[in-house]
Design goal:
This is Inositol-3-phosphate synthase. It comes from Methanoculleus caldifontis. Residues 199-307 form the Myo-inositol-1-phosphate synthase GAPDH-like domain. The protein is an alpha/beta fold and 367 residues long. The protein has two domains: 4-195 and 308-361, Rossmann fold; 200-305, Dihydrodipicolinate Reductase, domain 2, CATH 3.30.360.10. It has eleven helices and eleven strands. The strands form two sheets. The protein has a seven-stranded parallel sheet, with helices on both faces. A four-stranded mixed sheet has the order 8-7-9-10. Helix 2 links the parallel strand 2 and strand 3 (91-93). Helix 1 crosses helix 9 (306-326), helix 3 crosses helix 4 and helix 6 packs parallel to helix 8 (242-253). The protein starts with a strand and ends in a 6-residue tail after the last helix. The mean pLDDT is 97. The structure holds nicotinamide-adenine-dinucleotide. Residues 9-15, 55-58, 61, 94-97, 99-100, 113, 141-144, 146, 149, 167-168, 193-194, 196, 199, 229-231, 306-307, 309-310 line the site of nicotinamide-adenine-dinucleotide.
Length: 367
Amino acid sequence: MDSIRIAIVGVGNCASSLLQGIEYYRGRNEADAIGLMHWDLGGYLPSGIEVAAAFDIDARKVGKDVSEAIFSPPNCTTIFCPEMPKTGVTVRMGRVLDGFPEHMQGYKEENRFVLADEEEASREEIVRALEESGAEMLLNYLPVGSEEAVRFYAGCALEAGIGFINNMPVFIASDPAWAERFRERGLPIIGDDVKAQLGATITHRVLADLFRRRGVKLDRTYQLNTGGNTDFMNMLNRSRLASKRQSKTEAVQSVLEVPLDDDDIHIGPSDYVCWQKDNKVCFLRMEGRLFGDIPMHIDLRLSVEDSPNSAGIVIDAIRCCKLALDRGIGGVLTAPSAYFMKHPPVQVRDDDAYHMTEEFIRGLRRD
Ligand SMILES: NC(=O)c1ccc[n+]([C@@H]2O[C@H](COP(=O)([O-])OP(=O)(O)OC[C@H]3O[C@@H](n4cnc5c(N)ncnc54)[C@H](O)[C@@H]3O)[C@@H](O)[C@H]2O)c1
């Protein structure tokens, strides 16, 4: 089977889980592969994905082989594939811009980002590195709030002529101007902000949809999330958080027939609890009224390892992006974005997004 060459910006926990997963599934067959939505997606297996280039800014990652960098601090996600073969790809110094949150300085080095002393790469160097690597798409895993850095790397992907998968909530695929730039260049883009395999957002959406279908009026809801990784530490800075809140809130509002008043919905990352590491805990409450105007509520506590939960989706997003490249499709991939991402350009209920994505994979639709 053919391979798919990916470039990564941000070699953090999510990248670690993804790359571990590619290796982990290499040693399995379809019957014993747990945790995948697709074993063979349009002719591509998980093990066909290879890392071709990687960029970071952390002193403990830059200059290392990617297989080592993914296990370097402050990465703290579960190691489920400890024997990672060398990739031969060294993590390169990227461009910092607003990727390094100042407030992290107040935390222990082992838990936060540590800026490398290396000279930052220029735009030309990054574009050339992407071109020379043979990467076919760039996966963006930068910290929430890195508005400038994300636009910078998205611009590099455009210039290098490769696809883009935007796993976090700086709006690129859902910004019509950026979407148009990818369409004009004939390059596929999937985004924005990955919707984890079985995380808080999909659970909240499915339950909200259940209320709707069963005629239960949802009056109020909250979704409070805690975690102990750098993603949660980063989001302690409320000024970096706006787009994450928007992405998560719209993901739930969009499945309601009538959106809730702002005062009746509260969704977002709520605190950093160091010892939780990559374990994310979601406290979800939904208050509604059923037959006869009688009140009911759900209180739910969801506990998941955060980063493998994103990798279970990204492993399919990569293969859909590759199918688009094979088929000469550029611009936003509407169906995969709706199914895989929290803040796609077009929000669709998850059942419909699932069917649309299956049609895309089978070649029955082109976006
Ligand atoms: N885990 C999930 O389920 C999930 C779901 C949706 C979105 N996301 C988003 O995905 C992103 C990645 O998550 P993570 O847990 O891997 O984060 P992380 O903090 O572990 O990794 C971020 C990486 O980016 C690097 N970085 C920072 N600035 C950079 C720059 N300018 N250039 C290159 N590298 C830079 C950091 O050094 C770090 O290695 C976050 O924005 C997160 O919100 C994650």
